[in-house]
Each structure stands twice: as C-alpha cells, then as structure tokens.
Amino acid sequence: MTKLYFLKIENAVYYSELFARKVLGQWLGVDGSSLSIGINEFGKPYLRDYGNIHYNIAHKKGAIVCAVSDKPVGVDIEGVKNFNKRVAERFFTQNEQDYIFARKRNQDLRFAKVWTRKEAYVKWAGKGMTIPFNSFDVLKLDKSNVFIRTEYVGGYIISVCYSWHFGRVALHAAAKGGTGRE
Predict the structure, then answer these.
(1) 167, 1 in Cβ contact below 8 A?
(2) Counting beta carbons within 10 angstroms of the beta carbon of residue 116, is it exposed (0 to 12), middle (13 to 18) or buried (19 or more)?
(3) Mean pLDDT of the region 129-139
(4) CATH code of the domain in which 166 resides
C-alpha cells in the first residue's frame, strides 16, 4: 500500500527532509532522525537500511508532500497558476497539448495536472530528468504497469505515480482549507 502525506507550511524547502524523516519514522515505527538516507545517481532518495520501503518527496512554496510505499513511487506538487503555452509545446506530447487546450476553462488546472503527472512518473522511474518529458504521454500510460493518481488538495495539484500491481493508494492530507476541483 502507498500513503501520501501532505503538509501546508512556510519554508517548505527547509522542512522537507524533517517532514520526510517524521513520516518515514511513523511508517516504520522507528525514530526518523536515525534513518540513513541515500541518493541514487539520478537524485532519487532511498533508505539505506530499508530496501523494501520506497519514498519520494516534493515541495512547493508553502507545501510539502511525501509518498511512502513498498514499491517504487514518485510524487509531485504544483500550485495552480497561469502557465506559459511554450512550456506545454516544448515538453508535452501533442495529445497532452490537445487535452490542455481543448477548452479555455481550467487550462491552468489541466496544465498543472499533466506537469505533476510527468514529474511523478520520472521520479517513479528513478531516472530523473534523463527521460525527456515529450517522450511519453501521461494520459496514455500502460496501465498494466503503472498508475498515476492526481488530487486537488489545499490549492495544490498533487500527483503520485506507483506500480499498479500492488493495489491501491491512500491519500492523506492535512491542509488549511482547500476544496476538490476537477
């Protein structure tokens, strides 16, 4: 099972490792400050002493999200805001661009959804930015292998990517305000 933990906080960059250690400590039933964390050659963090536990963390100004699983996992978070059309044209497949620009309403939300799904996917794969964003389509992934779930929580879009074969994902959020929006 995968769990997703969300915290709305000022200075998210500073607190992200502390938050991850607290979440991982709770998950494992140990003191999180004692955990030995490594970074793979592509920048993905891992637990040195718990090879069967995977986690990923993302932060945006004012928020931190951490996903923990017994299989590879990737997570990303973005605020919904105006976007640059050229970014979509450069990094997204034609199908993803068509999805974003299909209607004027909520283009910013659809852009954030596609962007966070792409980030979560490359983080799940553990290869970082060596996978070109325009080389895969997050709206047409092979669902026999991987699943991406996207939620709107506390003013942020959060996407978590995980291996399909282990079941479901549980999303847990702790945020001030915020309502769901599709």
Answers:
(1) yes
(2) buried
(3) 91
(4) 3.90.470.20
